[in-house]
């Protein structure tokens, strides 16, 4: 494992991809920054983080030939690794908000942005951006966000948390190539935020009540609506929280 630390950058994913364009990097190269100036989340959302208070980093994972149709295994493996790492660190009431936000109760404590490189029908590498709210004490304008310290009342050493997280990540990502996906999918489904509870979603601008039943092999959210099961991609549905 190679860990590269920089004081500030626009985005750890962008920074790591620029490095990749210039030179070959070893599998599981990690880029960590104290200050991310233009952090990105899912669907182009901005990831806001106070400098020196949280963990913002990206991980390079290389694959020999992971079929594109198995790509959601990466998201599942990363989500579960973080879930297990946070559990070891004593963060309570954890769940995974589809597709890959980590929640403590009703609050988001971690976001993930995965960008894959595809050649032919295979994923050759993934740049996995992760933002974890650790010691930040205020999230102005973000009522559904929280940090470890807000939840537990404890101040955390960032390097110690990073060490725990990276060990879980490495183990989880190393299992992908040999996984058939079924066991990982079942474990992931069991950790889903609001699973088996009626929840309001937005579909095509309209509010729809549905019950989360799981996630399909290709990463679509399976909802039961009026007794029928329907599948939705990330751009087709949103939580209405």
Structure explained in plain terms:
- The strands form two sheets. This protein has a seven-stranded mixed sheet, with helices on both faces. It has a five-stranded antiparallel sheet with strand order 11-10-9-8-12.
- It has helices at residues 12-22, 72-88, 148-152, 158-174, 182-190, and strands at residues 2-9, 29-36, 55-67, 94-97, 101-104, 107-119, 122-132, 198-203, 206-215, 221-225, 228-232, 238-239.
- It is an alpha+beta fold.
- The mean pLDDT is 92.
Strand content: 35-45%
Distance between the terminal alpha carbons, to the nearest Å? 38 Å
User: Element order, helices and strands?
Assistant: EHEEHEEEEHHHEEEEE
What value does the average pLDDT take?
Answer: 92
Shape: globular
- Adjacency order of strands in the biggest sheet: 1-2-3-7-6-5-4
Quickly describe the structure.
This protein is an alpha+beta fold.
What descriptors fit this protein?
alpha+beta; 12 strands
Strand and helix map with partners:
Layout: E1 2-9, H1 12-22, E2 29-36, E3 55-67, H2 72-88, E4 94-97, E5 101-104, E6 107-119, E7 122-132, H3 148-152, H4 158-174, H5 182-190, E8 198-203, E9 206-215, E10 221-225, E11 228-232, E12 238-239
Parallel strand pairs: 1-2
Antiparallel strand pairs: 2-3, 3-7, 4-5, 5-6, 6-7, 8-9, 8-12, 9-10, 10-11
Helix pairs in contact: 2-4, 2-5
